[in-house]
Design goal:
81 residues; 0% strand
Length: 81
């Protein structure tokens, strides 16, 4: 649900959102809490690289990820731990 929530928040980016997929990646494999690996563009694509090197794009990404995390954690209000 974390990945889906973040993915929805990132739909506002100029680059195409490729959605979510499961991957057995070392950087998140042994996490004991929800974890995602975000790819916000690719340096081997001229179009992507133009965006990802832009300070404005980086700011927008940070804001959208923050918004997605806020949305995700709001769902905790109804959970009992």
């Amino acid at each position: 649900s974390l990945a889906s929530t973040l993915s929805k928040s990132l739909n506002a980016l100029a680059l195409t959102n490729r959605g979510t997929a499961y991957g057995n990646f070392q950087v998140i494999r042994d996490s004991t809490m929800p974890a995602v690996l975000l790819e916000m563009g690719y340096i081997n694509s001229d179009k992507d690289f133009t965006y990802i090197q832009s300070a404005n794009y980086q700011k927008v990404v940070a804001e959208l990820v923050t918004d997605g995390l806020k949305t995700y954690t709001k769902s905790w209000d109804n959970m009992q731990f």
